[in-house]
Amino acid sequence: MAEQESGIAKLLDLAREDPTCLEKLEKLRRTITVMFTDIQGSTAYFEKHGDAAGLVMVHHCNDILRGIVQEHGGRVIKTIGDGMMATFEECAPSVEAAVKMQHGLVDLNARRPESDRVAIRIGIHYDTGIVRSHDVFGDVVNVASRIESVASPRQIVISDTLYQEVRNRDFEIQKLGRFVLKGKKSERTLYEVIWNQETSGGAIVARSPEKLQAGRSFGLQVVDGKGAIQSEHPLLDSLTIGRSQGDVTFPADLHMAPLNARIFIDDGQLFVQDLSQGAESIFIRVAGGYTLQNEDVVLMGNQVLKFREISGAMSVAAERGATLNEVANVLQEAVADLVQVNPKGGAPVRCPLSLPEVYLGRTKGTYTFPADKLMSRSHARVLQRAEDFILEDLDSRNGTFVKVRGTVPLAVNGMVLLGNQLLRAVRQ
Question: Is residue 392 within 8 Å of residue 288, measured between CB atoms?
């Protein structure tokens, strides 16, 4: 711990060594709209067609998106893995571009077999940032990235500040719900831009929530490993679940606490709450991207991994524009890692997150677990973006899960693992 604190001190010294530089950066601070996109389905494409064809496909998709950004007065700042970051001087064109991007992918997919189709997630935020000629820094970038990680494939999610700027324009926008974003103490309300009724995330309509909530109901399905429904329970307001206590019980499941969890509706949004008091774990399946927070526990296959990051290191690095390797050289260790917490004999496996993209799988990836038959060949990846590390499932057979801490939102069709029970929240 003392060595880490010393390393952070060195980083802070680097940030303070040139006060005039920081003053100049502050003069560049102004409002800007930041968009992040991410292609979903590229992993399956790479698996089927090979790396060369996969790269061609990603470049082709990003070229289409880049053209749409430029057509709407935006500027692509950088590509990150199979996604991109773009900025817009005006708010409405960013939303117009996002809608056209989604339609552009529909047109592209129409010419492909269903197994080769891809989708994009889009997140957009409007706030102040430090705007240089070729880059943007500051919290506006971090928040935009975290909003994009909330989105599902084929979904456009925008911040509350952007919503205020475009709510009177000719867009159909629905309230998605309240979310706690990494690094923020209070919840933020996020919104979904509806570009296709069939792909709507089923959020609350911001313009008239009362009408939609009146006929709104949910259910909780118990499913097996193949997704077949074993039983279904109506969710009118709240359901408690446990081994021996609650509205729904599983007496034979010894991996479940007597009273394990509550799934409830608040203002039309689903939430899952841990009631086990630490006796047992609850895991929620990653859909889209998930912004990792220090001490998060990740489950993939039989592997239980804990995410650890050196507090403050990435924010200082972002302020200075330093790379992961540059920060690691100062600290003499990786900024973050995933550490195995359930090793069967021997020392736990440690997976330093020292690259912009780190892949994990049974036989293919930066780190592999060949003996784990529940893992897919290429199972998940961790993407470094702005000050964050984003966890993404790569269409694995059994999914990637993150341990619930307290109370967290649950998406429609979201999956929860309680003991040995896999539950799916659905709209009825």
Answer: yes
**How far is 72 from 69, CA to CA, in rounded Å?**
5
Cα separation values, 106 from 79, 85, 86, 111, Å: 21, 21, 21, 9
Strands (DSSP E) found in 136-184: 136-137, 156-158, 173-179
Residue 2 has pLDDT above 50, yes or no: no
Residue of 324 and 287 predicted with greater confidence? 287
Report the chain's terminal Cα–Cα distance, integer Å: 51
Identify the CATH homologous superfamily for domain 19-212: Nucleotide cyclase, GGDEF domain (3.30.70.1230)
- DSSP for 21-73? HHHHHHHTEEEEEEEEEEEESHHHHHHHH-HHHHHHHHHHHHHHHHHHHHHTT
| CB atoms near residue 127 (< 10 Å) | 18
Longest CA–CA separation in the chain, Å: 66
Please name the residues in contact with 20: beta carbons below 8 A apart, sequence gap of 6 or more: none
State the pLDDT at residue 79.
87
How far apart CA 115 and CA 131 sit, in angstroms, is 40
Residue 171 parent element (H or E): none
How many Å apart are CA 15 and CA 384, to the nearest integer? 21
Which CATH number fits the domain 284-403, given the four candidates 2.40.50, 2.60.200, 1.20.120, 3.40.50?
Answer: 2.60.200
Kind of pairing between the strands at 367-368 and 357-361:
parallel
Which residue intervals of the chain bear CATH 2.60.200.20? 218-281+404-427
Residue 274 and residue 262 in contact, taking contact as beta carbons nearer than 8 Å: no
389, 294, 347, 282: CA torsion to nearest 10: -100
Give how far the C-alpha of residue 199 lies from the chain's centroid of Cα atoms, to the nearest Å: 18
pLDDT, one tens digit per residue, over 329-383 is 777 788 899 999 876 667 788 999 988 899 999 999 999 999 999 999 999 999 8
Multiple choice CATH, 218-281+404-427, 1.10.15.40, 2.60.200.20, 3.40.50.10260, 2.40.50.140:
2.60.200.20
Residues 188 and 175 sit within 8 Å (Cβ to Cβ): no
